[in-house]
Amino acid sequence: MVFHLDHQLVQALSPLAVAGYLRQNGWEASNPYGSYGRIFRRMNEAGENDEILISTSQEVSDYATVMSVFVNDLAEIEGRPPSEVLEDLTLTSFDVVKLRAADADDIGSISLDTSIDLHQQAREILIAAANVAAAPQPRAYWQGRQFQLVNAYADSLRVGQTQRGSFVVPILSPWQFSMPADNNQPLLSFEHPFGRRSTRVLAEALKATRQAIDAVMVDGVKVAFSRAVKAGVSANLCRALGRIASITDGVHVSLQWSTTKPERLVADLRLHRDDASVLLEASRIMTEISPIPDTKITGIIQEIKSRLDAWDGVAIILANIDGALRKVRVGFTDEQRERVFAAGNEKSYVSVFGELKISGRQMELLNSRDFFVYPIEEDDEDASEQEH
């Protein structure tokens, strides 16, 4: 029996993706069939060869017709509904992240506000994983300017058709996504495209999140989640997961690998509403203890009272932080010492980059670099000379 399928969905099937799906499932390309066809063969359980025909060009006028027959034939061989086979073929270019909210009503619906929040937090989950994939090493907290690669990846994400069954939101991540290397950056070699690196990070991070939650009773939130940072867990990920768990009666996050490039990694995290408070507390702690990278502070060095040869290289800069004057402790390298010492004595206006660590009201700039002394304006020099 031939089932009628959505013409547009069938027309949108990629011949390359379909061929990849077939090869992944044991089919082998055989002889051509005309100018725009290819026969695939696979031996069945009875020891006989099954044959199936696909069209190799979406430009031919009967592409949708040929591929509709193909989907029906494949569904009969696999013993599945044609609509289910078509859905799998449509998603062959994607890794699919599924968020299942448990508190849907009898018709599979949730409130509009919850749905909007669910989609937003799903995006934050993917971006948190992509940041880890793009960076040299994981961080406990991601903030500030985002990697260009991550922005482009976020733009490539798609939302699949919502599924019923406790309200399922499928986020489609193109596993082959990548960007051309910047000519000004060294060309790095990776085993996987960036899209797949991001979902692999997510799989590891979801597993580590469950382990951290389970370890909280023994180790406490700070220790348990600090240990999970190396696996890709961050304040951003915990905040997004905690938010979802708090607005729904639990959530199930899973990852379905592209059928053309499956992985052995299992990504499956089930959260209950009670887990939300742990995750949100973990997010708060990791945010507080994490230095803010690539931070520029500008201000005036407070007076250095010791002699240069006795100075330990640590200075206090009175800087404008979020609209308020704050004292920031900065340690300088030996190469910077003389210039910093002179700028302090002259009360010069300076700037310096580093990682800003905030502990309560105390601030410290770590790994200082790019120290700059602003030139004194002529009017200021004249006023200084008149004072003397």
UniProtKB/TrEMBL annotation:
Origin superkingdom: Bacteria
Name used for this protein in its record: Uncharacterized protein
